[in-house]
Specification:
This protein is elongated. The protein is of the alpha/beta class. It has a six-stranded mixed sheet, sandwiched between helices.
């Protein structure tokens, strides 16, 4: 009996380490399972589960904010975007200007076709209309022109009737009515009959507007092949001018003169600053080729274009 009891105690001692090892293995497996697959269900530990859920929500919000709000760009990137936007606006403005010019050209063509179909019966046919730009104070210059290259009296009328060459001093009026300056021009015109009065207020800073009004007025009065603008301090070789124009009579959109090109003045402190310089290119670029203002000629289609779109 003693032997049997001693054998049972020995068996129990042998089973005890096995149970300890089994419990330790189960505990380790449980820890591993929780680490890999998340926290215990809420029903197991509601306080810990709620705290973990709030922490996960905060982490998710921080992650979303990071994705929705990228890192601020550098100043260089901002300036590049501003420059690109400015270039896009300039390109759009140039495109609109081009479309407007094309539309104006179509209108000019329609006007020319209408003239060819009999709408210009009231206008006198001519080969060239020469407008001599003059001012109230330029009486001596006008006398010099009359004594040199501009015919007078019957010779001037004969030149118009036989050759179709119209020559007129072009001048507007003073800013006030019944001015002594206007009266002096009226008296001079009564003697020579060689003025073309324009609906324009005289002024040095309005010369471009005066030139446009001259072309518009001349187109309305004469159906000419060419229109010439010349200053009153230029003495013209009339025969050479007519011969030169005759060589280009059958060409469209003729623009003849002493052509030049100068830099676009973007500096605001420059005397002849161009406010819209960017329309002609970047800083330092040159204007398109154009004639100097002393004398130049344009054909009928260009003069009509100016008349319609001045």
């Amino acid at each position: 009996m003693k032997t049997k009891n001693g054998g049972g105690a020995a068996a129990e001692r042998r089973l005890l380490p096995r149970w300890v090892l089994l419990c330790a293995f189960s505990f380790g497996l449980g820890v591993l399972f929780c680490d890999r697959f998340g926290a215990a269900p809420e029903w197991q530990n509601p306080v810990v589960a709620a705290a973990q859920r709030r922490r996960q929500e905060r982490e998710l919000a921080i992650s979303e904010d990071f994705v929705a709000k990228p890192k601020p760009a550098s100043d260089r990137d901002v300036m590049r975007e501003v420059a690109n936007t400015h270039e896009a606006i300039q390109y759009l403005d140039k495109t609109i200007a081009t479309l407007q010019m094309e539309l104006a050209a179509k209108r000019s063509t329609h006007e020319l076709l209408g003239s060819a179909n009999g709408m210009s019966q009231q206008r006198k046919k001519a080969f060239v209309v020469i407008g001599i730009n003059t001012a109230f104070s330029s009486a001596k210059r006008r006398d010099s022109v009359r004594q040199t290259w501009m015919p007078q009296g019957e010779k001037l009328k004969k030149l118009e009737d036989e050759k179709g060459i119209i020559i007129r001093f072009m001048i507007g009026h003073s800013a006030t009515s019944n001015n002594v300056l206007d009266k002096s021009i009226d008296d001079e015109d009564a003697i020579h009959h060689d003025f073309l009065r324009l609906d324009h207020v005289e002024g040095y800073h309005k010369l471009s507007a005066k030139t446009k009004i001259f072309f518009s007025t001349a187109v309305a009065l004469w159906d000419a092949d060419f229109y010439v603008k010349v200053d009153d301090d230029v003495h013209v070789n009339l025969g050479m001018l007519v011969t030169t124009l005759g060589r280009h009579n059958l060409k469209p959109r003729v623009y003849i003169g002493c052509m030049k090109s100068g830099p676009v003045l973007a500096d605001k402190n420059a005397k002849y600053h161009e406010p819209e310089y960017w329309k002609f290119g970047e800083d330092g670029n040159k204007y398109f080729r154009h004639a100097t203002g002393q004398i130049y000629a344009i054909s009928k289609d260009l003069a009509t274009y100016i008349s319609i779109n001045q």
